[in-house]
Structure formats: C-alpha cells, structure tokens
Specification:
The protein has about 280 residues and is mainly β. It has two domains: about 160 residues; about 90 residues, Immunoglobulin-like. About 0% of the residues lie in helices and about 50% in strands. The protein contains one helix and 21 strands. Strands 5, 6, 7, 8, 11, 12 and 13 form a seven-stranded antiparallel beta sheet that branches. The chain has a six-stranded antiparallel beta sheet with strand order 1-9-10-4-3-2, with no helix packed on it. Strands 15-21-20-17-18 form a five-stranded mixed beta sheet, with no helix packed on it. The longest helix is centred in the first third of the chain and has 4 residues. The protein is globular, with a radius of gyration of 21 Å.
Length: about 280
C-alpha cells in the first residue's frame, strides 16, 4: 500500500540522512531513519522510515516530526525546544491524518496548515512536505529536528535530543548560551500494594535533556521515604517512574512530591500526586 497527498516537489538540492538503531522500540513502531531534503524552491521533505510493513490506517500508528527552528533548546516547547510539529495521528473516527502544531508555552497547539503542505506514506515510511517559510525558517537557516513514533513503546530518532540539519551544508550550529530555564514537571496519581513494589509515575521535560530528580513519599506530613535519581539523560517523549518497596505495615492514602533539576542547577517547581496503598 502507498498513498500520496501532495504532488512531489522538485529535485533536492540539499539532503541529510540520520540513522536510528533497529530493534529499540520493543513491540512498538520502530523508527530506523530520518531523511531531510530541500529542493531548489525552498520545499522541505521529512521522511521517517520504520522497520517492517505497516497499514497506517489499520494500525492507527502515530508519528511526528518536530523542529527547533531557532536551534535553541531553551526556547519553544519542553520537547527539546521545538517550535513546530507535524504529526500523523488518528482522529476521533479512527482515521489517520496529518496535523500542524506550533509551540504554546511548554506544549503545542493545533493550527490551520498552510496551502501547499502535505504528507504521504508507504508500507515502511511516512513523509511530510512543507516550505521553509511556512515552517518559520529563512532560506538559509538551519534547525534541530527529532522524529517520534508515539505509543506504549515510544521510539524517537535520535534516542536522545535532536539531529541538526543545515540548509547550507557544512554550516555549524550556533553556540548555546547559559541554560536559565528550569525543567517542567508533572506527577501522576499512583497506587500499589503493601509489601510489594509500587511504581510512582511522573513526567519531566527539559530542553537540553539532562535531569536529576528527587521523590519524597509522605503520610500526611511525615516523610516515609526519599528516592534520588542522579543527573542523567532524559527524553521528554517518555514518562518516568521510580520504584518503592512498600513496607508491609503501610497502607492507605499517601502522597508524594517530585522535584527535578537540570545540569545547570535550575530547579523545577515541586509537583504533588496522591499515592494509594492497598
């Protein structure tokens, strides 16, 4: 099966291929590569290649390409600083379609796509087409880019942070200034059994993708446990968790807090969520 929803653009004048490891997505959609090309009229094409063959409508597979148009992970969304996202997702009727989103605060909002953009797919690839100007890029501007296959086993290319693409080959990306933006954090209601291991879930997002986290578990105001995760790579497309072996004599309604800090020492706001032990 193959489909195309836009007439192909003119021959590419600049292209780059980025590889991603095969077999790192478990049972999920496994991205194996991302190809970016530009034609002589300013049209950009993004091709996401995946392992195996897929019926995109039947599988209701969802994938996206996100661009950091100013090459600065400390601005834009919390997803590595990306400002533009083109996503292929299922609508309320189970039909897959491409949508355009632009950053709004830490997240994205859906916007009306420009004329002339489009998408296409085959058994093992998905493509998006748009002009550089429609994506907020000048003709010679470089950008950072990441692809993601979203689902229970999310896979990103690259596995951490972004690839850099330059519309003018061999142009170096700009040097980054000091990191002054704190991570963004959400904690999720969790539960467990006394005497067993409970998983406490949270979602931490940082543009540069390096995080240290401290989790504290309370019964009312009494601190029961502190769990620290040292500074390490973090992928904002993935949820995180810590494990806590619940003492046998602990049950009922607890709560936990989460706070994260990035490599520059910027601290997130403290996030809270309930923890119910049965």
């Amino acid at each position: 099966m193959a489909a195309l929803f836009l007439v192909g653009l003119a021959g590419a004048s600049g292209s780059a291929s980025f590889n991603d490891p095969v077999g790192d997505a478990g049972s999920g959609l496994d991205i194996t590569g991302l190809d970016v090309s530009k034609d002589d009229r300013g049209g950009l094409t993004f091709r996401v290649t995946v392992a195996g063959n897929h019926d995109w409508d039947l599988d209701q597979a969802e994938a996206l390409v996100a661009l950091d148009t100013d090459q600065n992970p400390d601005t834009g969304s919390a997803f590595y600083g990306t400002e533009v996202e083109i996503a292929f997702e299922a609508d309320q009727f189970g039909r897959t379609e491409a949508v355009l989103l632009r950053s709004k605060g830490w997240d994205f909002r859906r916007v009306s796509p420009p004329d002339g953009w489009g998408w296409g797919f085959g058994n093992n690839f998905l493509e998006f087409f748009a002009s550089d100007s429609d994506l907020g890029l000048s003709p010679n501007a470089g950008f950072n880019v990441v692809a993601a296959a979203v689902g229970p086993h999310t896979d990103t290319a690259p596995d951490l942070r972004t690839f850099n693409y330059q519309q003018v080959p061999e142009t170096p990306p700009p040097n980054l200034g000091a990191d002054t933006r704190a991570p963004h954090l959400l904690a999720y209601p969790s539960s467990g059994l006394h005497g067993k291991v409970a998983r406490l879930g949270y979602w931490v997002l940082d543009g540069r993708g390096t995080i240290a986290t401290t989790v504290r578990i309370y019964r009312r105001t009494r601190l029961l446990k502190t769990i620290r995760r040292p500074l390490a790579d973090s992928n904002p497309f993935l949820l995180s968790h810590v494990n806590w072996r619940v003492p046998r004599n602990v049950h009922g309604r607890l709560r936990f807090s989460v706070r994260s800090a990035d490599a520059a020492g910027n601290q997130s706001k403290q996030a809270w969520a309930p923890l119910v032990i049965h």
